[in-house]
Specification:
Strand order of the largest sheet: 3-4-5-9-6-11-12-14-17-16-15
Enzyme class: hydrolase
CATH topology of the domain at 4-254 and 398-495: Rossmann fold
Distance between the termini: 26 Å
Largest sheet: 11 strands, mixed
Family: Belongs to the peptidase S10 family.
Strand content: 15-25%
CATH architecture of the domain at 4-254 and 398-495: 3-Layer(aba) Sandwich
CATH class of the domain at 4-254 and 398-495: Alpha Beta
Pfam families: Peptidase_S10
Structural class: alpha/beta
GO molecular function, one term: acyltransferase activity, transferring groups other than amino-acyl groups
InterPro entries: AB_hydrolase_fold, Peptidase_S10
Helix content: 25-40%
């Protein structure tokens, strides 16, 4: 259970820290006049970013991709968007147009894990229209197939390589690669302003922010900046409706990672005796153990947890591409978060039975083919070896927690869907439930099962202030990767403003 005093401090920090806080002025959004939302002054750094005449955009329509048999059965655009002319910073994106009704369907900007992971992950591993064929690698180009459960069935989706240095995004000035939560969020807002200016036919479409994992920190910050920018009538106004987060990291280590021990106990990884010893000696804080007894108990528990795949506890322990701990003296090394375990290159490679890791391995091969880069229209000489997640550049986690931002957004009328795979031990759903409950919103729809094809697909509960939480039964770290059919059904209902 989250300590109320802890959450109160986070809310206070988010609302009072000078470069993270913003005053709101109540107004009605032009695109949704029946809802009242508060907007207000925007930070000076954003004004600077938006005022720069960043380098011109460059985009192309892609009809064929190496490894995909025949023409693509969906409309794909790739391109660069300059977000800083002075430094030559250009963010690369993939845009998949809705296969249903692109003139009226929602537009979603989808962020993936990270920081430093390419938007390509979202396109082929999460909600996009392609999947890799899981066949043993024989030295030839990995093959791609159409994903029948792509969210492009119901929405247009932008997959962004952000921050700069991720995927194919680049900058002329190497110093620019030293970014953080705030600066990359501001660049994302700049990207969106320019993208909608270049794509005016989508300006009136309902717009959503979505993503998984580290997106749980970034999306609430970006949403608040957009809301405030709209309040100042900056053109083009982005028709922001709501946001959705899958297995989100919020930055609050207490809430995200402190729930690992209760979860491990609940699924039978640790014994009653170990769990009771942890409760008796750690005073509720398992992330930063202080006493010698607590350290000993937590280390014993971590040894047991290391026997399972934390991202999906039913999986075999697999070679990644590969884990590389990043030193961070502010954290106990006992529990490394996903933020600190970034995939890099490895001399070994995962076996085909390692579902997620093997797909990541194939993506690293596919994206580094010259034919692939030519098809995507990658600017020559801008990126050396492509890696799915880049941990080589410094990154500042200067948004300690996004919980305060989420409280602000939901209390000002924005709907939020927070969902979690119930087999994720890295950021267990118990911690997500805890910080949502800390808002003390009243329950408007009691916990119940939600169904797909007459079977339970998970459990959901709806709160006041338009916040919905749902588990995805059988889902792992990126829930929709493991349960794509259920993920599409969930998105279709929620985007359609219907109960799950």
């Amino acid at each position: 259970m989250v300590k109320q005093s802890h959450v109160a401090l986070e809310l206070l920090f988010a609302s009072k820290t000078s470069h993270h806080s913003h005053s709101f002025q109540q107004r009605r959004t032009p695109s949704n006049s029946h809802e009242k939302r508060r907007t207000g002054a925007i930070g000076p750094l954003l004004l600077v970013l938006l005022s720069r005449s960043a380098s011109a955009s460059a985009s192309t329509v892609v009809t064929h991709l190496p490894g995909f048999d025949g023409p693509l059965p969906f409309n794909l655009e790739t391109g660069y968007m300059g977000v800083e002319e002075e430094t030559g910073t250009e963010l690369f994106y993939y845009f998949v147009e809705s296969e249903r009704s692109p003139g009226t369907d929602p537009v979603i900007l989808w962020f993936t894990s990270g920081p430093g992971c390419s938007g390509f992950s979202g396109m082929v591993f999460e909600v996009g229209p392609m999947n890799f064929v899981l066949a043993p690698y024989n030295g030839s180009l990995p093959q791609l197939v159409y994903n029948p459960y792509s969210w492009s069935k119901i929405a247009s989706i932008i997959f962004l390589d952000s921050p700069v240095g991720s995927g194919f995004s680049y900058a002329r000035d190497p110093k620019v690669y030293d970014v953080g939560d705030m600066s990359s969020s501001l660049q994302a807002v700049t990207f969106l302003k320019k993208w909608f200016s270049d794509h005016p036919r989508y300006v009136s479409n309902p717009f959503y922010l979505g993503g998984s994992s580290y997106a749980g920190k970034m999306i609430p910050v970006i949403a608040q900046y957009i809301s405030e920018g709209n309040g100042q009538r900056r053109q083009p106004e982005i028709n922001l409706k709501d946001y959705l987060l899958g297995n989100p990291i919020t930055g609050s280590r207490f809430d995200d990672f402190n729930s690992k021990i209760p979860y491990a106990h609940g699924v039978g990884i640790i014994s009653d005796q170990l769990y009771e010893a942890a409760m008796a000696n750690c005073e509720g804080d398992y992330v930063n153990p202080v006493t010698k007894m607590c350290v000993g108990v937590v280390n014993t528990i971590q040894n047991l947890i290391s026997e399972v795949e934390e991202g999906y506890i039913l999986d075999d322990r697999c070679v990644r591409a590969a884990p590389k701990p990043v030193k961070d003296d502010s954290l106990s090394s006992t529990f490394l978060s996903e933020e600190q375990i970034q995939p890099t290159e490895s001399s070994a490679h995962p076996t085909i039975n390692c579902f997620q890791s093997y797909r990541y391995y194939l993506s690293n091969i596919w994206a580094n083919y010259n034919r692939t880069r030519d098809a995507l229209k990658i600017k020559k000489g801008t990126i050396g070896k492509w890696v799915r997640c880049n941990s080589e550049f410094p990154y500042t986690r200067d948004v300690p927690s996004s919980i305060g931002y989420q409280f602000n957004l939901t209390t000002r009328g924005y709907r939020a869907l927070v969902f979690s795979g119930d087999h994720d031990l890295l950021v267990p759903f118990l911690g997500i439930q805890a910080w949502i409950r800390s808002f003390n919103f009243s329950i408007v729809d009691n916990r119940r099962a939600w169904h797909v094809d007459g079977q339970s697909a998970g459990f959901t509960i709806a709160y006041a202030n338009h916040m919905t939480f749902a588990t995805v039964k059988g889902g792992g770290r990126t829930a929709v990767s493991y349960r794509p059919k259920q993920g599409l059904a969930m998105a279709q209902r929620w985007l359609g403003n219907k109960p799950l």
